[in-house]
Amino acid sequence: MMLKIIAGKFPLLLFYTLIPLAIQQDIRSLRISTIPNGQFSCINTTCLPYSTIIVSKILYCQTNCLANIQCQAAHFHRITHQCQMFSYFTWSSASMVPDMNSITLVVSDDTRVPSIWIPNWIYNGDGETGPCATNYDLVHPTGWNYDGPITQVQYGVSNANQNMMTPGPSDRGKCHFYGFNSTSATTMWQIVDMTTLIDPARINNQIVRFNLSAWLGGYARDEDATGISLTFLTQANQTVGNTTTLGPVSPAGRNNVTSLVYRQSSGQVPIGARLFKLLVTVTRAAGSTNDGDVDNIALRFYC
Ligand SMILES: *[C@@H]1O[C@H](CO)[C@@H](O)[C@H](O)[C@H]1NC(C)=O
Ligand SMILES: *[C@@H]1O[C@H](CO)[C@@H](O)[C@H](O)[C@H]1NC(C)=O
Ligand SMILES: *[C@@H]1O[C@H](CO)[C@@H](O)[C@H](O)[C@H]1NC(C)=O
Ligand SMILES: *[C@@H]1O[C@H](CO)[C@@H](O)[C@H](O)[C@H]1NC(C)=O
Ligand SMILES: *[C@@H]1O[C@H](CO)[C@@H](O)[C@H](O)[C@H]1NC(C)=O
Ligand SMILES: *[C@@H]1O[C@H](CO)[C@@H](O)[C@H](O)[C@H]1NC(C)=O
């Protein structure tokens, strides 16, 4: 089949939309090109939308398309709010038809994030953003709320237990988190609005799933330990659904070896959820320092 761009009749205007991620200073962004007031037409049936959904705003048409690997282009209709998703699109074979009520969206291949909206919803989950302690010093984790002296510290600082050779993630980077000198427990947390990118209607249709993972650990036989909890909140900040936990990892959970061990859990985002709260708790049981450690905290969403 042959499709052509009707260049004279319809000036092809391209706008690259940077979808801001309201997740603190995260520099990641998704790119999609937008053709206002236009709709592409096709001759054969391969151009029929493979899926049509109703969304409340154009952003959700964009993010739903980006979240589906087969979606190469989409139409958003301003009046009906229909979001039609197409699996076949190339610039060389597109025929654009003017339509004041349509907006065509085309995914840029280099910026696509398959099956998920963004790779990790936890800002600085790996401790690599901002300064980290190179000594036994207090350095608050960048981008996290915190209570107590929980510290972002370099691997190799002896009081913080972990170094480049201790068992743990291969992509550990330079830094991790550590309980430092807290006398009991110290915590850090993030509360994030999921609806900046995830359509609330998808959540309420129970098709959005999450995958939470982290590396948790501590020092030798020391019972100091780190645990993580994930809770979902409604728009009114009320807890909704189940709480998901990782750890705390006891010495038995790491064979009494100074190390970080991988923990993972997945589940469904509950109806009514609009925000999540990710809480890290490092608890001191013995000794003069709080020897719970954590690194590479990741939270992904899937459709
Ligand atoms: C429809 O067009 C696509 C793209 O040009 C082509 O690959 C496919 O074979 C066509 N299908 C039919 C039934 O003509
Ligand atoms: C922990 O260290 C900080 C910074 O060095 C210090 O201000 C604080 O008093 C210490 N707290 C305890 C309980 O030792
Ligand atoms: C969760 O992500 C991990 C990688 O971080 C992967 O190994 C695992 O299969 C994922 N689980 C689900 C249920 O998607
Ligand atoms: C929910 O909590 C956040 C801070 O955690 C606050 O900014 C927001 O105003 C609260 N919303 C409501 C409806 O209470
Ligand atoms: C770990 O240490 C405890 C004592 O603190 C001991 O009872 C246990 O057998 C040890 N486990 C392993 C796997 O070495
Ligand atoms: C919450 O946990 C219960 C009991 O394990 C389970 O039946 C239910 O499906 C969970 N809810 C969600 C939204 O995952």
TrEMBL record:
Domain of life of the source: Eukaryota
InterPro entries from the UniProt entry: Pan_app
Keyword list, A-Z: Signal
Pfam families for this protein: PAN_1
Segments forming domain Apple: 53-104
Signal peptide: 1-24
Name of protein: Apple domain-containing protein
Phylogenetic placement of the source organism: Eukaryota, Metazoa, Spiralia, Gnathifera, Rotifera
